[in-house]
TrEMBL record:
<protein>
    <submittedName>
        <fullName>Lysophospholipase, alpha-beta hydrolase superfamily</fullName>
    </submittedName>
</protein>
<feature type="domain" description="Serine aminopeptidase S33">
    <location>
        <begin position="64"/>
        <end position="314"/>
    </location>
</feature>
<dbReference type="InterPro" id="IPR022742">
    <property type="entry name" value="Hydrolase_4"/>
</dbReference>
<dbReference type="InterPro" id="IPR051044">
    <property type="entry name" value="MAG_DAG_Lipase"/>
</dbReference>
<dbReference type="InterPro" id="IPR029058">
    <property type="entry name" value="AB_hydrolase_fold"/>
</dbReference>
<keyword id="KW-0378">Hydrolase</keyword>
<dbReference type="GO" id="GO:0016787">
    <property type="term" value="F:hydrolase activity"/>
</dbReference>
<dbReference type="Pfam" id="PF12146">
    <property type="entry name" value="Hydrolase_4"/>
</dbReference>
Amino acid sequence: MLGNRAAYPARVAVSAYTLCMKPPYQPDPLGPDFSQLVLPQLPDYEGPVQAVLVRYLPAPAAPAAGAVLYVHGLNDYFFQREMAGQYAAHGYHFFALDLRKYGRALLPHQRPNNVRDLREYDADLSAALVEIQAAGHTRLVLSGHSTGGLITALYAARHPGSFAALVLNSPFLALNQPWLRRKVVAPLAGALGRALPNLPLPAGLPDTYGQSLHQAYRGEWDYNLAWKPNHVFPVNAGWLGAILRGQRQVRHGLELPLPVLVLHSERSAGGRQWREEFRRADIVLNVADIRRLAPRLGPQVRLHALPGAVHDVLLSVPEVRAAAYAELFRWLAETVG
C-alpha cells in the first residue's frame, strides 16, 4: 500500500524537474570546495518553489565507494564542511540537499519549513537523485538528521531499491513532549492542520541548543544564523499534522528493505536555562524514543549510542564526532563495501 501511494508523487517530481529550465551549478557560500544547483519545482499553495543541491568538489579517495545524499533537520540547512570532507576521504562523492523553504532554498514569499504533507519533499529528493544519477553515480547512500531522518526514512520506504543504505542521525521519530501534549494536545492541533494549515503553533524549543553549537555563543561552529537561528522558526498546524502522520507510519512499521544505521546520543537532558551538560546530551529529542522506535524501520537496523553526543551527533565535541565517524564508516564498509 505504501509503495502504491508513493509511485505517483515520484513520477510527478521527476517530470516536473526535467521539464524546468535547469540553471548550471553556481558558487556556494561554503567556499571554493562547494557548488550549488537550484532545482526548480512546481508552485505550491505559497507560490514558486525550489530546492538546492550542494555538491562537494574535491574528488573522493580512490577507489570511489559511491555517493551520499545528506538531508538536514528542522530549523536547519547544510553547512557541515567537515562532514563532506569525511565522506570524500572515505571514498564517497558527497551531495547535500537544502529542502524547499529551508536555507538556500527559502524564497522571500515563503514561511520557513511550511509543508502540509511530508510527501511534498519527494519532489525535491527525486530531483536531486536525477541530478546525482546523471553525474554517473549509481550506488547511493541516503542520510538524514532529525526531521530529515524522518523524511528520508519515509522516502526510502516509498522508493525501495533506490539506495544501498540509510544513515540516520538522531531521527525525529516521536515528539519530545509531556504525556498530555504528546497524546492529546498535539494530535488535536495536527488534526486542525487539515482545515487550518496556517494556524501558528509554538515550536516549544528553547534557544539553548543553538547556543551550544554556534561559535558566537558557547559552541565551535560557524553558520548562517538567518538560516539556522537559535530561536526556532515558528511552525504551524499543517506542519505538525504532516509530522504526526509520518511518525504514525514509523510506529506501524516501514519494513525498509535496506541496512539502516541510527546514530544517537547516549542520553537526553532538558530545561530552559543553560547547563554545561547541554554540551554532551541530546536536548531536543528523547533518546528513549529513538531506541524504542528505530527497530520498526526495518529488519536491518543497527543502533549506535554515543556517550557525550549532542542532538546532531556530528556537531558534538571533537572526540565524540570522531567516534561517530569511525562507527559510520566501519558500518558502511561492512554493508556497502
